[in-house]
Amino acid sequence: xxxxxxxxxxxxxxxxxxxxxxxxxxxxxxxTSAKAADGGTYTIWDPYPQxxxxxxxxxxxxxxxxxxxxxxxxxxxxxSDLTNKALLAAQQDNSPDVLILDNPVVSTLAxxxxxxxxxxxxxxxxxxxSNLLAAGQSGGKTYGTPIGAxxxxxxYNKDVLKKAGVDVASVKDWTSLTAALAKVKxxxxxxxxxxxxxTEEGSFQFLPWFWGSGAKLTELDSAxxxxxxxxxxxxxxxxxxxxxxxxxxxxxxxxxxxxxxxAFAENGTWQLANAEKAGFDYGVLPIPASDxxxxxAPTGGEFVTVPVQGDTARYATTRKLVSCLTSTDNLNATDxxxxxxxPTSEVQDKQVAANAALKPWVEAVKAAKGRTSxxxxxxxxxxxxxxxxxxxxxxxxxxxxxxALTAAQNAVK
Length: 413
Hints:
alpha/beta
């Protein structure tokens, strides 16, 4: 008998379409059969098709299997494909034992009844930073544990700022950042680039400014929210940011910054390797909140979850696998491989000790926030869609920031 109501699973599948990750990997062929005939084989599905059988990641999975006394059957998919396959597998009572998911879709699968809670599967989350764990919580329950996190911050070109007479230490809030952009433009260089495209990427990049104003996703048209969109709109009007941001993805925005002409770029930890190849001296600082301090930026990264199984006796071994994957030593190695900041302070300290350049990213992650936090769950995709539409309207000049966000809030209602 199917334990998952078809209506809930169908609704979840529709939600997944809107929750495509802001940064996704390419697809990899693989079987969708989750259960092996041998009871000593445990299945793990992950969104890392870039890592083949000889990778450190694959070796880690096999090692955790050996510790637990079982064999590991691993299948990798791209992010959106993985989630759809997980929904189908649940409907067929054929879910993998361990499912590693992009954090915004955890609540979607949880509400569809696909995932067990950490109370049920006994996975220990006591060391995980609460702001990161919140991305996997819905209805007061926790559905998994983060394997790592990435987020957004401001990269800056030291040479451009120096020539403009800007001391980056002076950039502490929106007023001082805007003043720095004015100096950069006056010096003949370009100010800041970011992604405001009409997709989840646009919302992802706008959220630090939205949250940094003190606004809440349940009230898009608050005075604080309007101030955030007005900030971006004013930057375009004054020439501090290029009109290209309206169509920029995070990749094309990075390409603009990599030209060496821009003072700042909003982007993520995944660009660190490219930053090293840029050919100019760069730095990183957390995105400032309106009145100072670090703004909450949205978290990217995955959760290790345990799907519902017909054979509940499997959970004991599954718990061993999850504990191994998220142990202090393994998190340190894995998050280095994935360019992630670890979800625990203990491992974060190890990362910074090994690479001081990660310090601003750790600070940004500590201030970060899950997109589905505040118990938004499956409400987030609809809110996000109206948010990016409002950003597009305001930056294109078709509506004022206030009117654009008022329309967005009315549409959400």
